UniProtKB/TrEMBL annotation:
Stabilizer subunit of the dolichol-phosphate mannose (DPM) synthase complex; tethers catalytic subunit to the ER. It is a multi-pass membrane protein. Pathway: Protein modification; protein glycosylation. It comes from Endocarpon pusillum. Pfam families: DPM3. The keyword Transmembrane helix applies. This is Dolichol-phosphate mannosyltransferase subunit 3. PANTHER family: DOLICHOL-PHOSPHATE MANNOSYLTRANSFERASE SUBUNIT 3. Belongs to the DPM3 family. Component of the dolichol-phosphate mannose (DPM) synthase complex. The lineage of its organism: Eukaryota, Fungi, Dikarya, Ascomycota, Pezizomycotina.
Length: 121
């Protein structure tokens, strides 16, 4: 299994779990505006108004935590990626070949700017 297919399958698994947890929120007729329910002209809507979809989570967690899970996951992913970037910058000098190549490019750019009489300090 390639890395891309592993990533896609993980994303699909995570989104399926989130939808399983958030589905009672989305299908709760009491969370919908009353004008929306009145505009529906499907037989049995009155039965829909009185039924609730059971949840496996306590009501407080279902209403206060589950809706914010995607934002939490996004912030966690961004923090992880920023941490990896910072760690890569900290360890950059340990890669001698890349370090010498980059410093050579910087010196070449400085000489180029000096030859054009451009202040670069």
């Amino acid at each position: 299994m390639t890395r891309a297919s592993q990533t896609i399958s993980f994303i699909l698994l995570a989104s399926s779990i989130y939808l399983f947890l958030a589905l009672p929120l989305l299908s709760d007729p009491h969370s919908l505006p009353s004008r929306f329910l009145e505009s529906i002209s499907i037989p049995g809507v009155s039965a829909l108004r009185s039924t609730k979809v059971p949840s496996i989570l306590p009501l407080r967690i279902q209403n206060e935590i589950v809706p914010y899970l995607p934002f939490w996951a996004l912030i966690t992913l961004a923090s992880y990626l920023l941490g990896r970037l910072g760690l890569g910058v900290m360890r950059f000098k340990n890669c001698e070949s890349a370090y010498t190549e980059l410093t050579a490019h910087i010196e070449k750019a400085k000489k180029n700017l000096d030859s054009r009489n451009v202040g670069w300090s």
